[in-house]
Write a structure and sequence with these properties.
alpha+beta, 60s Ribosomal Protein L30, Chain: A, 10 helices, 6-stranded mixed beta sheet, 320 residues, 7-stranded mixed beta sheet, Phosphoribosyl-aminoimidazole Synthetase, Chain A, domain 2
Length: 320
């Protein structure tokens, strides 16, 4: 859809559609840039406050992935006429509470009537134009780290089908509610890091493929080192697969390309394509700074799982 568009250029637009990065970056003055993103989706959980909070965390994640700080946000809501006002209020409150964790506010928004609920945020932040983290900054030899376990798509699907244990859903919700604020701070404490993205709807392999393509490199991902949410493997084996997983796999297996070793457990291979909501950051760091990054993650109370490395070439290798 985007390829046929005729889009004018602007020398102040430092990051736009052309780079397929996480958020847009616009230079407003020497040494000062704003970073902006927008995201929204249908309910992933039943509780309205939690839905609003997760949607807010997911929306702000692109700002953190680029290395920016949130300034303020605007609500984007589509709600059925039949939805009780108290439910809408709870969604908005959840989002507001989550944005307040960054020390900022929701300043307004826009709401329309729609048969199916949808909610998210347009988020504006600030960023140092000389310190933008991008998908295209990977270097041969870099190690790959992931800051959250994967499996939210499978677990959410299992919950919708009444298959999910309460403890498994609780852990998944806690993961989705956790901002990437601290993970971003840890990454930015290592000046040599230039490559970062967040793992969301395209799944781990999809977003890793984007990084590989934009950086002109090949990634080697060790499937057994990828952290998984409790219950994710079990529900995937039972067939709790979101439609986005199959679409992700079909597209990236043919377009990346992805070389999937036959020795990789088939269920784990599926989960690598699982669409994530409010997923973690995927970071590339030089071997000389890997220990410093792990230490920074520990200092900020964030998980850091080493899941692979950057090689010369193109595409992705997935090994056991």
């Amino acid at each position: 859809m985007l390829q046929p568009l005729t889009i004018p250029t602007d020398p102040n637009l430092l990051v736009g559609l052309q780079t397929s990065d996480d958020a847009a970056v616009y230079l407003v003055a020497p040494g000062v840039a704003i970073v902006q993103t927008v995201d929204f989706f249908t309910p992933i959980v039943d509780d309205p406050w939690t839905y609003g909070a997760i949607a807010a965390a997911n929306s702000m994640s692109d700002i953190f992935a680029m290395g920016g700080d949130v300034l303020f946000a605007l609500n984007i809501a589509a709600v059925p006429d039949t939805l009780p006002p108290s439910v809408i209020t709870a969604i908005f409150q959840g989002a507001s509470d989550k944005v307040q964790e960054t020390g900022t506010v929701i300043a307004g928004g826009h709401t329309v009537a729609d048969p199916e609920p949808k909610f998210g945020l347009c988020v504006t932040g600030r960023i140092d134009p000389e310190r933008i983290l991008s998908k295209g900054g990977l270097r041969v030899g870099d190690r790959l780290y992931l800051s959250k376990p994967i499996g939210t798509g499978v677990i959410a699907t299992a919950a919708k089908r009444g298959m999910c244990e309460a403890t498994h859903l609780k852990v998944a919700v806690e993961t989705m509610l956790r901002l990437n604020l601290q993970a971003s701070a840890a990454v930015r404490s290592i000046p040599s890091i230039g490559a970062c993205t967040d793992v969301t709807g395209f799944g781990l392999i999809g977003h890793a493929s984007e990084m590989a393509h934009r950086s002109g490199v090949r990634l080697r991902i060790v499937a057994s080192e990828v952290p998984l949410l409790p219950g994710a493997t079990e529900y995937a084996k039972q067939g709790a697969i979101a439609g986005g997983l199959d679409r992700n796999r079909a597209y990236f297996m043919s377009h990346a390309p992805v070389e999937l070793s036959a020795a990789v457990d088939p269920t784990i291979a599926q989960l690598l394509f699982d669409p994530q909501t409010s997923g973690g950051l995927l970071i590339g760091v030089s071997p000389t700074d890997a220990a410093a990054l792990e230490s920074a993650f520990a200092d900020h109370g964030v998980m850091a799982a080493e899941i692979g490395e950057v090689l010369a070439g193109s595409g992705i290798d997935v090994v056991p």
